[in-house]
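stuck on whats below:

***
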Amino acid sequence: MKKIRVKQVRSKIKRPQDQKRTLEALGLHKMEQVVEHEATPAILGMVNKVKHLISVEEVK
């Protein structure tokens, strides 16, 4: 399965609680933090929910 690299590029301050929890569920706790995940439907749904706070790239 494909892997994706997710990086938090915007702050979670003044964001709704569900978006903060989604970032934490993705493993993003600080700005500029990078994590890798399998591109499962659940992960892609979380990425879509907070796409304005993160950057995503596919890992080769």
Summary: Residues 17-26 form the longest helix (10 residues). Residues 23 and 34 are 11 Å apart (CA to CA). The mean pLDDT is 97. Residues 3-59 form a domain with the Ribosomal Protein L30; Chain: A, fold (CATH 3.30.1390.20).
